[in-house]
Amino acid sequence: MKTKQEKTSSQKIADFADKSLLVVDDDKPFRDRLSRAMEKKGFQVTQSESAKDGIDRVKDSPPAFAVVDLRLSDGNGLEVVKEIQKIRKNSRVVLLTGYGNIPTTVAAIKAGAIDYIPKPADADDIENALLASPEKKARPPENPMSADRVKWEHIHRVFELCNRNVSETARRLKMHRRTLQRILSKRSPR
Q: How far apart are CA 157 and CA 90, in angstroms?
C-alpha cells in the first residue's frame, strides 16, 4: 500500500542519470545554503552569481535542473531560463523571486520554467518542484509562510534595496514613515 507521500510525490533524484543542478542567485549566503542542501539531497550543484555567468555555464554544460533567481545584479533570470531551454529543452527549471506577481509568473512559464516559487524558498519545496512529474503539479508546501510573514519579508527586502533609508522605503511602499518604523522595529512573524 502506498503512503500519502508516495501517491502525491513525484520522482526521486536517484531516478535521473543526470543530476546536474545550476543555482543562479546573486545572494551569496542564500545560494551557498541552497547549494549545500541540494547536494545533500543528491544533486550535483554548480553555482553562478550573475545572469552572464549563468548563461556562460549553460553554454559550457547545460544542466538537467536549474534554480534561477528572477532579479540578478546584472540582468534578468528569464534570460538564463531562455538560454537553458534553447540548448536543453527537457531541462527542469524553477524560477525564484522576492517579487511574485501574475505577469512575471506568466513570463517565467512561457520562457520554459516548470514552476515559480517566492523567496525565501525552502530546499524541500524547490526539490519537490524540480522533481514533480510534468503531468502533475508539485505538492503544495507543508509549512507555507503566513501572509504576515510574506509582507514582512517584502518590506525588509525593499528596505535593504533602499540602503536602509526609512524615508525612501516608506515613499516606495506608499506608506507612512512612522508606520514603517513600527513594522521595522518588530520581530518577524511566523
A: 33
The average confidence (pLDDT) of the chain is 83
Whether the CB-CB separation of 159 and 123 falls below 8 Å is answered with no
- pTM confidence score: 0.68
| pLDDT above 60 for 3 | no
CA–CA separation, 111 and 93 (whole Å):
10
Contact 63, 93 (CB under 8 A): no
Per cent of the chain over pLDDT 70 is 84
- Distances in Å between the Cα of 152 and the Cα atoms of 69, 174, 185 are 20, 15, 11
> What integer pLDDT is reported at residue 32 of this predicted model?
92
Q: How far apart are CA 134 and CA 149, in angstroms?
A: 30
Distance CA 29, CA 35 (A): 10
Beta-sheet pairing, 20-24 with 44-48: parallel
User: How big is the chain by its Cα radius of gyration, in Å?
Assistant: 18
Q: How far apart are CA 40 and CA 51, in angstroms?
A: 25
Query: Terminus-to-terminus CA distance in the chain, angstroms?
Result: 36
DSSP 129: H
Confidence of residue 4 (pLDDT cuts 50, 70, 90): very low
Domains contained in the chain, CATH given? 4-131 (3.40.50.2300), 147-185 (1.10.10)
